Amino acid sequence: MSTRRIAYVAVMAALYVVIGFYITPQLPNPMLRGQGVIAINMVVVVVAGMLFGPYAGALVGLIGTSLNAVVSPAGGRPYELAAIIPHTIMGITAGVLSRANSWAGAFAIIVGHVLNVVAFLILRLALLPIPVVAGGVALETLIDLVLIWLAVAVLRPVVRSAPA
Prior knowledge:
The protein is mainly α. It has a single domain, classed as Arp2/3 complex 21 kDa subunit ARPC3. It has six helices and no strands. It has helices at 3-23, 41-52, 54-71, 77-100, 108-122, 130-161.
């Protein structure tokens, strides 16, 4: 990886943490009866994978989620710890999918959500019935897809034109 790409990864991982710490906790998911949030910080991992490739996406998922697990409020730590591997895989998937189609990478968010739910179920962190969780994930996925496509549309020209 180039120095420039490493800098982008560092900025994106920091952005994941800032959004995860300050914004995500303020976005309750209405489908989850006060027991979940709309984790828009996951959008950052997918955007990183789409703009900078699978390795960068994986690093943003790994580093951002790990750091967020350390600094997040006490209630969020088990979820962030459980999400480290799912978010790393999500970043890789976004980079690979976007190579095939520049907009398809956004659908990696679905991989992240499904793997999160599986991890939460295995670790017994998901306390709501599956249909309720599915509704919450569906709502969050729709919001995430819109945010990903907007962010990539805005950032792609900026990243391409940035000096080397």
